Amino acid sequence: MLKVLKAIPLLIVPLLCLGSSFVIDHKLMQGVILPKWLWVQLMAIPTLLFIVVGVFLKKTRIIFTKADIVLIALVIWLIVRASVNAHLNEVMVLKVLAGVMIWLFIRLFFSSQEVIKATLFIYMAVIASQCILGLLQLYGFLGSHHSLFPITGTFHNPGPFSGFVVSGLPMALGVYFVTRKKRITQRAQRGNNKEEFHGEEEKGLFSVSIGGGKVTTWSSIMNGWISGLITWVKQLTGDVCLHYFSQVVIVLLLLVLPAARSRAAWLAGAIGCAYVFWFFRKELKTSLRADNYRDFASALRIFALPKKLLVFIGLLVFLASFIGLYKFKQGSADGRLLMWQVSWEMIKDKPVMGWGSGGFEAHYGDYQAGWFRSGKGTSAQELVAGTPDAPFNELIRIWVEYGVVGVFLVLGILYFCFAKLRRESQRDTKKSLRGFVFPSCPDIYRGFAILQGSLLSILVFSLFSYPLDVAPIVVQIIVLIALITNLQSATYGLSPKTYNLNPIISKLAALVLLALIPYIAHQTLNQYKGHKHWKEAYQLYQYQIYDDAAEEYEKALQYLPANGLLLQVYGKCLAMDEKWEQAKEELSEASNFRSDPILYTTLGDTYKALHTYDQAEKAYWHAWQMVPHKFYPKYLLVKLYDENGENEKARNLASELIGKEVKVESVAIGEMKNELMRLLQK
C-alpha cells in the first residue's frame, strides 16, 4: 500500500490520459471529438516534466528493447510521410509527440507490480464509468451525443464508444481468473471463522438459556454480523478488491455492449475473451476439479473431446457468427467491402511509400469516381457508396498513407507484443515468477494474456472501424503496448535484450524534450482558437449571415491553414454569398486535401456562375460518379444543360432521373422530380 501511495502522482497521468474520453467542449467545432485530442496533447506537458525530472534526478534510466526501437522507427516514418503535406505535418506531429510522451512515461515509471495493478484498476474504472453513462443514456436519464442512437457515452456515436469499452472485457476476465485464488483463500478463512463462531456459541457466549433451551439474542446476531464484516474487511487485499471489481466491470460490459449494436465490438470482445480463455484453459480445468464440479465437467464433456473436433466446432461457430454479423447490417458491410476494394486501387499506385498523411481523405473520392466510371462498380455498390474519411480498416489506411514500410513497422511492433517469451536461463525462472505482476499464474507467458487480450480486442476492432481517429482509444493502445514491453524487460528476467542509453545522452535527450513544451502548448492553443472561430462561423452560417460567417472562417483558417473540411465549408459560404471568384479559389485549394461530392457540386455551381460551363459540367459529373446513388449532382447537370441550351442532353438526363431508383425518399427529392417533370413538359 505504501508503494501505491508513493506512486499516486505517477498514476494521475494515466488517469487523466484515459479520462480524455470524458472531455467535451461544445464551444468548439466537433466539440465531442476534437477536445479529446487537445486534452491528450496537453497531458504531454506534465508527462514531459516527469520524464525530465526523473532523468536529471537519476531516478530512472532510459532503457530500450527491440520493440521500442521499432516503435521509434515507426514514429520517424510517420513524421516523414506527414511532411508530404506541409501544413498537415503540424497536426500529425502534435499527435505523434503526445503519444510518444505517454509511451515513454509508462515505460520509464511503470515497472513495479503494484503500479501496474493500480493502472489496470484505473483502466477498468474509466471503462466502467463509460458503461454507466451508456446505461443511463439507454434508459433516458441522460441524452446521447447522436440524434439516431441512444447510447454514445461521451463519444460522437456508438462505434467509438463500443471500441473504447470493449477492451475492458478481456482485461476484466483475465483479472478475474488470476485473482480467483485469493478469493478462494478468503472464503476458506471465512469458513474457519464461522466454525469458531459456532463453537463460541455452543459455550453460551452469545445465547441465553430459557426453560432449558437456548435462544439467540439480537445482540448475538449483531455481534456475528459485525464480526463477519470485520473479518471480510481485513481480508480485502488488493487482489481480492480487483476480483470483486472485475466482476462488476464484466456485468456492466455485458449489459451495455449488446445495446450499443456495434458488430465490430462484439467480434473484438469475443476474440479477446477467447484469447484469455485459451491461455487460462489449464487453470480452468484444474479449478473445476478442485471445486468439485466434476459432474458439471463430465456433463459438458468439453475437456474429453478430441482437439481436432474442438477446432472444427470452433470454426463452425465462428463462421456462423460471422455470417450472422454480416447479415445483421448487410448494407453497412457491403459499403465497407467497397471501401476496401477502392483502397486497394490506391495501394496499387503507391504501394511502398504510400500517399502520405491525409492521403486517404484527399484521394479516396477521386478513386471511387474512377471505380464507377470504369464500370467495375455494380448497381448494388452504387447504393452503398459513400465518401468516408477513413476506410474502416486501420491496416488498410496505414498501407494507403504510409505504404508497405509503415505496415511492416506496425506488424513488427505487434510481433514483439505477442511473440512467445523465453526465459534467459533456468536460474532466472524463480526471479521471473516473483517479479511478475500476478504471481498466482504459473506461466508468465499465459499471464500476459490479460494485456494481450485487451490489445487484441482493439486490433480486431480496428479491422472494421477507425480507432486511430479516436484519442482515448489511441491512449489505450499506447498504455497496453508500454505495459507489455515493461513486463518483457530485463527487470523480470525475460529474453528481450535491452540497450541502456548513456546518462549524458539521456540528459541531452531530456533537454530536447523539455524544449518541446512551448511548441506543444502553442500549437494546441492554435487548434483550440481555430475550432472556436469555426464553431462561431458555423452558427452564423446557419442563420444565413454569410458576411460575418466568412470573417470567422477566415480567422479560423489563420490557425488551421490546411484543414480540407474548413476550406470546403468556407468556399461554400462564399458561394452562398455569391463571391464566386473567391469561392473558386478556396474550393480549389480544398480539393488538394479532400475529395467530397459536396465540394464538387459547389465548385460546379461556382463555375456555372462564372459561365465556365465545361468545367462546371466536369465538376458535376465527378460529384455524381463519386456517389452514383446521389440525386442532386445529376439534377444540377440537367439545370446546367437547360440553361446552356443543350436541350437533348437535358431531356435525356431528366427522363433518366425521374425513373431512377432512390435510396432514401425525401421531400427534397420529390420537389426535384416535380421540377424535372415541368422541365420535360416545357
Word description of this protein:
This protein has 682 residues and is mainly alpha-helical. The protein has a domain of 176 residues. Helix content is 73%, strand content 2%. It contains 31 helices and four strands. The strands form two sheets. The protein has a two-stranded antiparallel ribbon. About 9% of the residues have low confidence.
Strands in their spatial order, largest beta sheet: 1-4
Q: What is the straight-line distance between the termini?
A: 86 Å
- The geometry reads as globular
Structural class: mainly alpha
Helix content range of the residues, please? over 70%
Low-confidence stretches at least 5 residues in length (pLDDT < 50)? 194-216, 292-300, 422-444, 490-496
Instruction: Compute the CA-based radius of gyration.
Output: 30 Å
What profile does the largest beta sheet have?
2 strands, antiparallel
In what range is the share of β-strand residues? under 5%
Task: Give the overall pLDDT as a whole number.
Answer: 81
What's the β-strand tally?
4
